[in-house]
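Entry 14. Ran structure prediction on the chain below.
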Amino acid sequence: MKQIRLGIIGMGNMGGGHFRNVQAGKCPSVKVTAVCDINPDRLKNLGDIATFTDADKMLESGLIDAALIAVPHYLHPEMAIKCFKHKIHVLTEKPAGVYASQVRKMNQVAEEAGVKFGIMFNQRTNPLYAKAREIVQSGQLGKRKRLVWIITNWYRTQAYYDSGSWRATWAGEGGGVLLNQAPHNLDLWQWIFGMPKRVRAFCAFGKYHNIDVEDDVTIYGEYEDGASATFITTTGEAPGTNRLEISGDRGKIVIEDGKLKWWKLKEAERDFCFTAKEGFITPENEYQEFSEEAPEGHPQVLEAFAQAILTGSEMIAQGQEGLNSLSISNAAYISSWTDDWADIPTNEALFEEKLAELCRKEKENPRKK
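Output, structure tokens:
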């Protein structure tokens, strides 16, 4: 079997997990031939694999065809662009970057280099979310009305945030729950329901923890066709909830507790509303329920990435799609900072200006543990 030669940049929790998946045979089209980390202790006992503490030297070694990037958020664009310039394919952990202009640049350089660029959006492999996308995108739910996602089971203690000086800082991560925990959900929101035209967001910074970044967020999104979306997330609520509800004029989907529930109206609600002769009746519906265990998403995304390189097949999530979820979170920050609506595409210059200002203030007044 043909295999790609993979180099992993960053051997922390995520990079180490990807390494173990490949070594366990979960990605048959992948062979790890090199790894890189600035911490030499993470490069011990890895077997017959080249190790580097300098990413540039690994990229110049000729030992890899592709790289998996699992380093802090701000370094994702820098590392990816270096790879592209060496004609090396890239699969990066989420988020693709901290601000939208970075990701746009990444895609541009990848295209110019003629290499593959993918994002580790492993939640797309969940069959329930894939089924929801199929129902919505095929028109079976009718004209879209509303998406509501309550995703509050990202609970974190103060000890989590104190475990690293870079955690939950503007300079270290570029944000809080929107950049660290929720990018998968933001991606699924737009993947299933589409991109909103503008958002109004309310971000609470350090509401439940001793941190500078947001740990509680409510986003309201509007669409060109009149549909709306509400997205609520936090790391400070227990017990948490994960409930996705999507409605259209032909029914409703709810995903919660490992099940997809689907109510299919026998006629469009808008037609029923104006033709019904009684005031307190509702349209008849047919109920269906789906339950399917999610696979191990990370190795599935990596294997699809390898096959895209080897055969030209589709990746789970292309690099361009990393721009969508980041555009929503960037707009949410702008909306919260300015106390106003924020359009999508975002005002990238304003976002970068505000973020730089927060990084400066954070440096002048570092958080005390």
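The chain has a mean pLDDT of 96. Will compare against last week's run tomorrow.
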